[in-house]
């Protein structure tokens, strides 16, 4: 689902930024590195360009998994 940036509050954008940063940190602690495409999607998600379901669909599609 695509949403407009203005459809989420500043506090929601901040929460999304923290969530994305926490996920990146957790991955790094496991020795993993996110690709450029995922990082771009994560930034777009945090900015409110789309919802978490879309982030998941994009990630699964990128890895050839059922969306």
Structure write-up:
The structure is a single chain. The protein has 67 residues and is an all-alpha fold. It has helices spanning 10-29, 36-47, 52-62.
Spell out the key features of this protein:
67 residues; mainly alpha; single chain; 0% strand
Counting copies of identical and different chains, the oligomeric state is: single chain
Query: How many beta strands in the DSSP annotation?
Result: 0
SSE pattern, N- to C-terminal = HHH
Tally of separate helices: 3
| DSSP helix fraction | 55-70%
Structural class: mainly alpha
Largest sheet: none
Beta-strand residue fraction = under 5%
User: Quick check: average pLDDT?
Assistant: 92
Distance between the termini: 13 Å
Overall body shape: flat
Unreliable stretches covering 5 or more consecutive residues: none
Kindly provide the radius of gyration, computed on alpha-carbon positions and rounded to a whole number of angstroms: 12 Å
């Amino acid at each position: 689902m695509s949403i407009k940036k203005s459809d989420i509050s500043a506090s929601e954008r901040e929460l999304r930024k923290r969530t994305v940063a926490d996920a990146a940190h957790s991955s790094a602690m496991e020795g993993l590195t996110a690709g450029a495409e995922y990082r771009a999607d994560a930034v777009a998600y945090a900015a409110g360009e789309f919802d978490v379901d879309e982030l998941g669909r994009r990630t699964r599609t990128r890895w050839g998994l059922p969306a």
